[in-house]
Amino acid sequence: MAPTQGRTCYSVRMQMERLKVLIVDDYEDAVDTLAALVRLLGHECFVAYSTATGLRLAEREVPDLIIHDIALPRMSGYDAARFLRQMPALRQTVLVAHTAHSTEQDRRRAKEAGFDQHLAKPIDQTLLATLLKTVALRHQRRPDAD
Questions:
Q1: For 3-62, what is each residue's pLDDT tens digit?
Q2: Long-range contacts of 98-103 (CB under 8 A, 24+ apart)
Q3: CATH superfamily, region 17-139
Q4: How many Cβ atoms sit within 10 Å of the Cβ of residue 36?
Q5: DSSP 8-state secondary structure symbol assigned to residue 92
Q6: Considering the entire predicted model, what is its pTM?
Q7: Strand ranges (DSSP E) for the chain?
Q8: 91: buried, middle or exposed (CB in 10 Å: 19+, 13-18, 0-12)?
């Protein structure tokens, strides 16, 4: 990569809004790896290894983006999405299902539960960067943005 390309990418990253991202998944290694990547891309990231912890963090931190696994013990990601969508403070939060379940039926169920997007595991780094950029741009355009 030519040095000017690196500087260009860096300046674009620096101009992008810093997001608050919450990742909820019971597979700790995957969560920690994904969180490290989100942080490397310049965003604040919170992690939860259970739905209950994720719901508490979502209420306390009011993230711009929640990346949530579907197949969790005790409370599924579908149920969590329905609960999160009832919280007025999170009405602008982008909710992404991140799961190994990626059939058309799985995508439909995620949409019906309140997810904005459905991404198959493992998430591609380029796709993650694009998702973060899209959410940051959306956040900057919000009338109530800080």
A1: 444 444 443 444 568 999 999 999 999 999 999 999 999 999 999 999 999 999 999 999
A2: 98/23, 98/25, 98/67, 98/68, 98/69, 98/70, 98/123, 99/69, 99/70, 99/71, 100/71, 101/70, 101/71
A3: Response regulator (3.40.50.2300)
A4: 12
A5: T
A6: 0.85
A7: 20-24, 44-48, 65-68, 94-99, 117-120
A8: exposed
